């Protein structure tokens, strides 16, 4: 029988509540379709800091490196606002991304028709929106050295971050973008700031060169600021947006808001397939953060976490039919008017995290066993 190892790292805030709903689905798949998932558990972020004094322990890093996939909740919260920069909860996530070499971050922004009115944009601009932000995740200003605050000795300090991109880093993320575009509507928009940044000039050159291998895909270049403007002006013009680590961080938050709720969006962070095993390291996480203001109240929306699990089924295990079924179940539950507080509309009583999870599990079971 196949065994598939999942490392669950729920983290902080609403992470554990959302993860509990995914555990229901894992158990369900083991029971109904013999999916063979084995669960391991790890700590990350503030939870790891409290237990081990570090935002991710060496033991849990080893589990993450060995797992077939990592399911990640969220990290951070006011409790840890004052810890040293090196130990802040986010450092655990950044270490996972870096050590697992998860260079390709897929952030789909899909607007479910049932939620189009919850968008900050007019319904006609976002209804049916389906774009994919592909964010480079292991390079750029997040990791470039030097990265420090230097004392200049004259009463002044200097904060330094370094934006670095090498050819191979741009090449591999560009390939991923063109390959993903082939499975979608065949268009890539690459965003950088070549008008002010050398990394932008190189990014533009390398993406253009890689494009020669994908003549069937349309490539368009946009300055990242103009891209942000176009995202809120006419988001449906995009298919795949290819961009660097920092611009991707910002643009994906903008795209998320277009869809009506940050609580809805999943993401996948993928590495390179291993040369011998062909296995690709991967981590799946909701785009929303730890939301400490609502943590522990049972009102968080678990859909982004559940949709992240759907991406895991698709990209780590090739369980396409099951992934399709889970995504269709999410749309079905929304259509049925089942809403957590963040996406509720007048006239509907919001449900709890657990009720939303159960509603999805029940309908998912029906689809799996149909
Ligand atoms: C994200 C988050 C992270 C990032 C933080 C938590 C370090 O904002 O995944 O978008 O900046 O990458
Ligand atoms: Mg972000």
From TrEMBL:
Positions contributing to Mg(2+) binding: 225, 249, 253
Catalytic activity annotation: (2R,3S)-3-isopropylmalate + NAD(+) = 4-methyl-2-oxopentanoate + CO2 + NADH
Keywords on record: Amino-acid biosynthesis, Branched-chain amino acid biosynthesis, Cytoplasm, Leucine biosynthesis, Magnesium, Manganese, Metal-binding, NAD, Oxidoreductase
MF GO annotations: 3-isopropylmalate dehydrogenase activity; magnesium ion binding; NAD binding
UniProt enzyme class: oxidoreductase
Domain Isopropylmalate dehydrogenase-like, first and last residues per copy: 5-360
Swiss-Prot/TrEMBL cofactor(s): Mn(2+); Mg(2+)
Record-listed E.C. numbers: 1.1.1.85
UniProt-annotated binding residues for substrate: 97, 107, 135, 225
Compartment(s) where it occurs, according to its Swiss-Prot or TrEMBL record: Cytoplasm
Record-listed NAD(+) binding positions: 77-90, 289-301
Pfam families recorded: Iso_dh
Pathway recorded for this protein: Amino-acid biosynthesis; L-leucine biosynthesis; L-leucine from 3-methyl-2-oxobutanoate: step 3/4
Record site feature (Important for catalysis), residues: 142, 193
GO biological process, one term: L-leucine biosynthetic process
Principal location: cytoplasm
DNA-binding in keyword set: no
Family label: Belongs to the isocitrate and isopropylmalate dehydrogenases family. LeuB type 1 subfamily.
UniProt function note: Catalyzes the oxidation of 3-carboxy-2-hydroxy-4-methylpentanoate (3-isopropylmalate) to 3-carboxy-4-methyl-2-oxopentanoate. The product decarboxylates to 4-methyl-2 oxopentanoate.
Quaternary organization: Homodimer.
HAMAP family: LeuB_type1
Name of this protein: 3-isopropylmalate dehydrogenase
């Amino acid at each position: 029988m196949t065994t598939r190892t999942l490392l669950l790292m729920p983290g902080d805030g609403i992470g554990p509540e959302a993860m509990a709903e995914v555990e229901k689905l894992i158990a369900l798949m083991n029971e109904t379709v013999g999916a063979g998932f084995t669960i391991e558990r790890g700590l990350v972020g503030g939870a790891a800091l409290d237990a081990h004094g570090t935002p991710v322990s060496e033991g849990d890093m080893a589990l993450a490196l060995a797992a077939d996939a990592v399911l990640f909740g969220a990290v951070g919260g006011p409790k840890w606002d004052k810890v040293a920069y090196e130990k802040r909860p986010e450092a655990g996530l950044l270490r996972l991304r870096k050590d697992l070499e998860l260079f390709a971050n897929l952030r789909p922004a899909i607007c479910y028709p049932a939620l189009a009115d919850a968008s900050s944009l007019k319904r006609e601009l976002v209804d049916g929106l389906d774009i994919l932000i592909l964010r480079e995740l292991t390079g750029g200003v997040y990791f470039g050295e030097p990265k420090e605050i230097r004392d200049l000795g004259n009463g002044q300090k200097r904060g330094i971050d370094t934006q670095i991109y090498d050819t191979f880093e741009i090449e591999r993320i560009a390939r991923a973008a063109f390959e993903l575009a082939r499975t979608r509507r065949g268009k890539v928009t690459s965003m950088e700031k070549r008008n002010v940044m050398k990394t932008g000039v190189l990014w533009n050159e390398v993406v253009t060169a890689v494009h020669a291998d994908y003549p069937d895909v349309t490539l368009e270049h946009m300055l990242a600021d103009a891209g942000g403007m176009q995202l809120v002006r006419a988001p449906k013009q995009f298919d795949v947006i290819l961009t660097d680590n920092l611009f991707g961080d910002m643009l994906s938050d903008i795209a998320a808001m277009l869809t009506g709720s940050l609580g809805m969006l999943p993401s996948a962070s993928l590495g390179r397939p291993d040369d011998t095993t062909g296995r690709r390291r991967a981590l799946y996480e909701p785009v929303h953060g730890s939301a400490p203001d609502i943590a522990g109240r049972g009102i968080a929306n678990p859909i982004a976490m559940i949709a992240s699990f759907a991406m895991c089924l698709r990209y780590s295990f090739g369980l396409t039919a099951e992934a399709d079924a889970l995504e269709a179940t999410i749309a079905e539950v929304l259509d049925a008017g089942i809403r957590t507080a963040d996406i509720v509309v007048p006239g509907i009583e919001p449900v709890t995290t657990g009720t939303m999870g159960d509603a999805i599990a029940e309908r998912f079971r029906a689809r799996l066993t149909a």
